[in-house]
Amino acid sequence: MPLYLKDITCNSCYDPAVDTVLNPAAWSDQAAGIFGAGAAYYNDFRGKRRPVESMSFPKRFPIKSFPILGERTTFSIRAGFFNVFNRLLSVSDPSTGSPSNPPTRNAQGLLTEGFGFMNYLAVSTSNQNNTCPANRSGQIVARLEF
């Protein structure tokens, strides 16, 4: 059985408010106190790819040395950009609780929880321990070495 019902790497192939992405028939609950017979690691069970690209542009300028001081001086400047393509919108990984936990819907028919539910309600934009990258940011550093 395939582990996924939908391709989670394709943004237009599913609607997280309507579709669950994990196949409940491919999973089973293990009885309490009994070791499972499933593999410890599945090669085809991965989270959604969330690329975050960073770029840096350095340049170093040598300055004529000062004969009085006997030193060489350089000026360097660097511009660094984090999440340069500003990829923000993403949902969390699918819930992997009990496969017997059916999806629940609110009054509008939108998913609220259940096995394979990708929480589109809790989209965050922090790159520290959350699923989505932070907003695009950059910094410029200038340095004078002598």
Low-confidence stretches: none
Anisotropy-based shape: elongated
Number of DSSP-assigned strands:
5
* Radius of gyration from CA coordinates: 25 Å
Mean pLDDT: 79
Order of helices and strands: EEEEE
Number of helices: 0
User: Strand content of the residues, in percent?
Assistant: 25-35%
Query: Order of strands across the widest beta sheet?
Result: 1-2-5
Major sheet characteristics: 3 strands, antiparallel
Keywords:
about 150 residues; 3-stranded antiparallel β-sheet; single chain; about 25% strand; mainly beta
Question: Mind explaining what this structure looks like?
Answer:
This protein is elongated. It is built from no helices and 5 strands. The chain has strands at 54-66, 71-82, 104-105, 111-113, 137-145. The protein has 146 residues and is mainly β. The strands form 2 sheets. The protein has a 3-stranded antiparallel beta sheet with strand order 1-2-5, with no helix packed on it. The chain has a two-stranded antiparallel ribbon with strand order 3-4.
Set down the secondary structure blueprint.
Blueprint lengths: L53 E13 L4 E12 L21 E2 L5 E3 L23 E9 L1
Antiparallel strand pairs: 1-2, 2-5, 3-4
Give a concise summary.
The protein has strands at residues 54-66, 71-82, 104-105, 111-113, 137-145. With 146 residues, it is mainly beta.
